[in-house]
Design brief:
With about 55 residues, the protein is mostly helical. It is about 65% helix and about 0% strand. It is built from three helices and no strands. The protein is rod-shaped, with a radius of gyration of 23 Å.
């Protein structure tokens, strides 16, 4: 058994979901842009709903 064989991951070993998420920079970019956008839209809708009706 060589040194590379000892350090190589097994084919049966599954990658954790959080690790696969953190390894994907485009998915992180999408989440980093989409989450604040959704929060600001929801916040804006809540502010509009709370405005009093003009006389």
């Amino acid at each position: 058994m060589t040194e590379q064989d000892k350090n190589a991951p097994d084919d049966d070993e599954r990658i954790a979901g959080m690790q696969s998420l953190m390894d994907n920079p485009f998915l992180l970019l999408f989440i980093g842009v989409a989450m604040p956008t959704v929060f600001y839209i929801v916040w804006g809708i809540m502010e509009i709903v709370n405005l009093p009706v003009a006389p």
